[in-house]
Design goal:
Strand order of the largest sheet: 1-2
Shape: globular
Number of strands: 2
Number of helices: 10
Structural class: mainly alpha
Helix content: over 70%
Order of helices and strands: HHHHHEEHHHHH
Largest sheet: 2 strands, antiparallel
Distance between the termini: 23 Å
Number of domains: 1
Strand content: under 5%
C-alpha cells in the first residue's frame, strides 16, 4: 500500500507538470523503502513509463502531443541512455547526488525566474509552429535543437535514473513557440519512450528490478497521472511553470541534504 500511495503522488506531479516523475520517484523510493539510488532508478522509471503511456494517450486524444518531435527526441534518448547507465555503475554515488541537486536547482531557478506570459516563446526560435497547419516546421535547426534535447535527456536518464522531463520542459520552452500545454504533453510522450528504453536496457544489462515493489508503485503512478492531467487542463501556463519550479527546488534541497550527510541514499 505504501508504494501505491507514493506512486499516486509521483504520477500526479508528472501529469501536472510534464516532469517530476522520476525526479521525485527516485528520492521517494530511497527515503521510504530503503533502496539505493541505483536500485530505485529502474523502479521509478518503470512507473514513469507506464504512467507516461497513459498520459500520452490522453494527450494524443486532445491533439496536444507533438508526436513527431517526441519520437525523434525519444529515439535519440534511448540510443544514448545506455552510456549513462554504464557511467552510473562506476561513478561515486555522492557525486551523482550533488550533480542531481545542482541540475534541479538550476532548472528551478530558470522556471521560477521566467516572466509571466501566455505560454508561448516569442521571437526567432529553432522549433517554430506553422500557424497555417498548426504543425512544427521542420528544418535543420529544428532537428539539431530537438536532437540535442533528446541526447542530453537520454544520458541523464541513464546516469541519474530520471525521466528527463525536468530538462525537456524548460528546453522546449527556450527553443520553441509551442504552448505550455503542448510542451507538457510532448514531454510526457518523450519521457515514456526514453524511460521504457532505459528499463529494457537495464534488464538486458542484468540489473535486478524488484518487481514486487515496482508494479504497485507503477499502478499508483497511473492513477495519479490521470488526476494530474485533469488538473493540468484547468491551470494556466504560468501556474504550471511555477509548480514545476517549486517541485524541482524542494527535491534539490532534499537530495543535497542527503548528499551532505556524507552517506549514500539508502545507506
Amino acid at each position: 500500500m505504501g508504494a501505491f500511495v507514493l506512486g499516486i503522488a509521483i504520477g500526479a506531479v508528472m501529469g501536472l507538470t510534464g516532469a517530476g516523475g522520476a525526479i521525485l520517484g527516485v528520492p521517494a523510493l530511497v527515503f521510504f523503502t530503503g533502496l539505493t539510488l541505483a536500485d530505485a532508478a529502474p523502479v521509478a522509471l518503470t512507473a514513469v513509463a507506464l504512467a507516461g503511456f497513459v498520459g500520452t494517450l490522453e494527450g494524443l486524444k486532445r491533439r496536444l502531443v507533438r508526436y513527431r518531435a517526441a519520437i525523434f527526441m525519444g529515439a535519440i534518448g534511448v540510443a544514448v541512455a545506455p552510456l549513462g547507465l554504464r557511467l552510473a555503475r562506476i561513478a561515486p554515488e555522492r557525486i551523482l547526488l550533488f550533480a542531481f541537486a545542482a541540475i534541479l536547482a538550476y532548472v528551478s531557478f530558470r522556471m521560477l525566474s521566467r516572466p509571466a506570459d501566455d505560454g508561448t516563446q516569442p521571437g526567432d526560435v529553432p522549433c517554430h509552429v506553422d500557424p497555417r497547419t498548426g504543425r512544427l516546421h521542420w528544418t535543420a535547426r529544428t532537428a539539431a535543437a530537438l536532437g540535442a534535447i533528446g541526447a542530453t535527456a537520454g544520458f541523464l536518464t541513464g546516469l541519474l535514473g530520471v525521466g528527463g522531463g525536468f530538462l525537456i520542459v524548460p528546453a522546449l520552452r527556450k527553443v520553441s513557440d509551442i504552448t505550455m500545454q503542448g510542451i507538457v504533453a510532448t514531454s510526457i510522450a518523450m519521457i515514456t519512450l526514453v524511460s521504457t528504453g532505459t528499463v529494457i536496457a537495464a534488464t538486458l544489462q542484468h540489473h535486478p528490478i524488484p518487481w514486487g515493489l515496482a508494479w504497485p508503485f507503477a499502478a499508483g503512478a497511473v492513477a495519479g497521472m490521470l488526476g494530474g492531467r485533469v488538473g493540468a487542463s484547468r491551470l494556466p501556463a504560468r501556474r504550471l511553470q511555477q509548480l514545476f519550479g517549486i517541485v524541482a527546488a524542494v527535491v534539490a534541497l532534499a537530495v543535497l541534504w542527503r548528499a551532505l550527510q556524507g552517506t549514500a541514499l539508502g545507506a
